[in-house]
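Figure 2 data, in text form.
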Amino acid sequence: MTEKRRLNWSTLRLIATSPKLLAWRVEHPQPESPALRLGRAIHCAILEPEEFPKRWLVADQCAAKTKAGSRCESSGILYHSGEWYCRVRGHAPEGAGALPEGLEMIQLDEIELVRICAENVRAHRPAVKILSGGKSEQEMEWTDTETGIECRGRVDYLRANDLIDLKSTRRETVREFAMDVARNLYFGQLAWYHDGAIRAGRLPADAARPYIVAVSTVEPYDTMAFQISSATLEAGRILYRDLLQRYARCQAAGWWPGIAPDLETLDLPDWAPGMQGSEDSGGDW
């Protein structure tokens, strides 16, 4: 890696796959997916509703006229002087393209989903309670005492004694969402934010355990609110500390190995055919 910068969670979590992936993504950032963009829109609508119309513009129908004289029925993608145009040759005027800096595009069907998600969170009393009395989108910086690594984080919502992370999800049950918390290392992210906020002086040393508010982007657009357990917080702390130590060793050595830098022995999982002995039923075929 050529540039030294403060380490954030979205970068650190990549080392759980391999140091090589982390180093690669630092040099080759991954384009934002539609799902991530939609998630950011939902965040803005819930946490900063007054800012939403200032940042997000709804892509309208293409403003161009067809040869028959009627308005083009395609969705607009390119923006120019307050109008939207599709990519059909000749429909967009010269210079049409991306939105001005600071503005983002959202489609008509997406804006309706964002509205429904925001309404459902505001109708969920536990979520409303924990998403009040604080400040949204709080940035902080700190230095890890054990490794000396300079870190940073952006917390969705910060109160005097705790922090809240907002997630959009396609999961429909608590069990499924809990599996996502484990699979996507959200528990490590929460512990990272929690301890980082304490280190940065944004939370007291005896701060409460973090919260998660999760809103589903599939019908019926349900909302779930959780405070993570002490065991989950400690597991997250163990995880991020292990990742930080690995990052520190790679940084010191200037070596960012892949997932299997040494010769490995390959073992099949127990469920693979033949791993539990013969499956021959005794027939002729």
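Caption note: The first strand starts at residue 56 and ends at 58.
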